[in-house]
């Protein structure tokens, strides 16, 4: 069985002491490719060196909406130059909108729209972080589609929306990626969404070190090997086999990010 973890942050300090052991466990769990996400430019070098060290790892470059105050011309140039010259860069992100506690909505929107332009220019997909902002993210993507005549390609990562919101992004040709939150007992809405996503739009991720899935919930650190628990839960919710979910999500990740396994 082959799995792809489409969203990891293993450059964080919490992985420093034992990254090789963590890697052995993801290999044992069948994780054959990983897409390393990126929060802000000071991480570019550390992520790039991890991707150089581990052949199975590709990465994204971008600025997280919660870091939107760091957006400037230099950030944009760094993203463009790294994405343009390193073939291991397979996406722009994470970008998006996080309105949970935001007082900088316009700044977030500007950084998001500029990163959509960069992704389009470089013909790369975007990794979208969306919290308390599904309506606004949809508006931005719809406006983009009208302007350009076609959708940006991308994924709604660590998806937490309702089935109705899920449908909005499926209609915009987006992939929908589920994390450990889909295993949480209280997450009925996310579970309903996981059950209704079309097979050819479904992705899985850990978003590690955050959000360890059941039965590892409560551990201080999530890790890529645990994407298997996400796959098992998604399989259960869709009344499909684990191997069917592994196959379809691996194929989808290859299609979106241009990976081969
Ligand atoms: Ni992330």
Beta-strand proportion: 15-25%
Q: Main sheet, how many strands, which sense, barrel?
A: 8 strands, parallel
Strand arrangement, major sheet: 1-2-3-4-5-6-7-8
Shape: globular
Q: In terms of per-residue confidence, which ranges show pLDDT below 50 for 5 or more consecutive residues?
A: none
Taking all Cα atoms into account, the compactness measure Rg is 17 Å
Bound molecules: nickel (II) ion
What would you note in describing this structure?
The chain is α/β, with parallel strands linked by helices and 261 residues long. The longest helix has 18 residues, at 105-122. It has an eight-stranded parallel β-sheet. The protein has helices at residues 19-28, 44-53, 73-85, 105-122, 134-148, 163-171, 188-196, 227-237, 242-257; strands at residues 3-8, 31-36, 57-61, 89-98, 126-131, 154-156, 175-178, 202-204. Strand 4 (89-98), helix 4 and strand 5 (126-131) form a beta-alpha-beta unit. The model has no long low-confidence stretch (mean pLDDT 97). Nickel (II) ion is lined by residues 7, 9, 37, 94, 207.
